[in-house]
Amino acid sequence: MTVPLLDVHDLTIAFPAARPVSNLSFSVAGGETVAIVGESGSGKSLTALALMRLLPGAARISSGRISFDGHDLAALREPAMRKVRGARLAMIFQEPMTSLNPVLTIGAQIVDVLKLHENLSRQTARARVRTGCPAGCASA
Ligand SMILES: Nc1ncnc2c1ncn2[C@@H]1O[C@H](COP(=O)(O)OP(=O)(O)O)[C@@H](O)[C@H]1O
Ligand SMILES: [Mg+2]
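^ thats the input. predicted complex w/ adenosine-5'-diphosphate below
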């Protein structure tokens, strides 16, 4: 059995007076796309924020484990987490008009992120956006 890239196990997110996410488990393999679907207020955004370690101050992970590429995300110090964020884990926040620029194509905006976080040339970043391949796999 292959080890999942992302493994969320028994995740519970609690506010002082509410527990919007209870005992959630799922995993994502490398190259796999997983969509989490649920009604408004069911905890999708909080789950994504927990993965990014960007939960609002009043919220805490009261149980569970999030492992990414073999690392326990809860145990990473903030400087290490900052390297993961953006480079390996990214989030497009709700309200796309404030997170994406409507006058640029989505591809151009992803190219900008790759140039910034991975120091890629524009040409390499564009190839990566077109193929979805990490560096080195485009020629394989
Ligand atoms: N900062 C917050 N303080 C208190 N409750 C919150 C906060 N953010 C979200 N919630 C509550 O947590 C629940 C899940 O919210 P959310 O993850 O945003 O849902 P979804 O993204 O699925 O619509 C909702 O009931 C919401 O009201
Ligand atoms: Mg949401």
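The mean pLDDT is 90.
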